[in-house]
Amino acid sequence: MSTLVPIGPASLTRGRTLRSLVPAFLKWFEFVRRRSPHTVYNYGKDLQSFLRFCDEAEVAEPAAVTFQHIEFYMGWLQLERGLKPRSVNRHLHCLRSFWTWLKREGIATTNPAMDCFSIPERHPLPNHLTIPEQKKVLTVLAAGRSLLGRRDYALIATLLLTGLRCAELAALEVAHLDLTPGGCRLRVINGKGAKDREVPIVPQLEKILRAYLEQTRAELVGRPRGTLQREAGASSWRLIEDVKGRQIYHNLGTRSRADAERRQAELLPPPPPPPFVFVNAHHTGSRMVHRAGLALSTKTVFQTVRRVVSPIIGRPVYPHMLRHSLATRLFENGADLLLIRDTLGHASINTTTIYTHLTTTRQRQELARLLK
Questions:
Q1: The pTM is what?
Q2: pLDDT by residue (tens digit) across 110-141?
Q3: Does one domain contain both 238 and 200?
Q4: CA–CA–CA angle 41, 44, 50 (5° rounding)
Q5: Domain assignment present for 362
Q6: What is the DSSP string of 102-138?
Q7: How far is residue 177's CA from residue 191's CA, in Å, rounded to a whole number?
């Protein structure tokens, strides 16, 4: 992590170009505003995009930027980069925050981004899986017997039955689970908006998670590193260690596989188990993968959902669809909006009201009764 550098007028006199000011802003955004690394990274990407635009426009200093420049930049994002209005408005919000900081530091006197209008956004209904589709996904995945298949079953079931976000699932630790009878719940630590919350674990998910933790996860985190190999015609086994893509060979000098596995456990014992619930497993079961048994990334969670669920449903599926699916299922079965809000961790009930626009079975039955 970068060290904290004092951000005052004296430290900014060395250069007041936009390009020289962005790093100082990002440090302030991270250390003073306490924004997450993910948010800081995305703000940095958006600002680098704006800097490239300014280079082409030959605009280097904050005072030279007008609201016309920013409006032209917003149009360029749509026409040249093909961004949708929501993404363009995210760029605008980033520039507003940047110029707010410039004003606070006495570097700028105006905020040209505040003079630009946000682009109207379309608010489509949330994509989701129907209740029969959700049941089909869990039924198909429950039949999997491979190590990866059993892990994916528990992972998808957790997303479908708790509505966790990708980052929340990846950060979920074993210590955050309570599977004791009568108190089954999980705790989301430092979720979106730096908020904690508790989510009940329903009996169906409790059974799945208990089996996963006792059997599948124990195998994933307890596997020795490396892979055993015996070439055709060779009389002894050798151990291949993979160190970030570089292979190291150990001649074991043993004839039986049992002795080779014992030597493997001695030379390359399993790493300390990570605290996270869901860990890596290579799709071939190979022990050469150096990340096997380690924590999942949010990108891996996203790719797992696309790889596993999409073929079952027959259309592209992404993790947030599973979150929408839980909310839709709750609303379909009569849950009030406060329960859905608390389960999903929405900051505002207004976000939860998007599900009220979906047509439920109860609504269809009531309309049929009234209009017969």
A1: 0.74
A2: 999 999 999 998 888 788 999 899 999 999 99
A3: no
A4: 150
A5: no
A6: HHHTTS-S--GGGGSPPPP---PPPP---HHHHHHHH
A7: 15
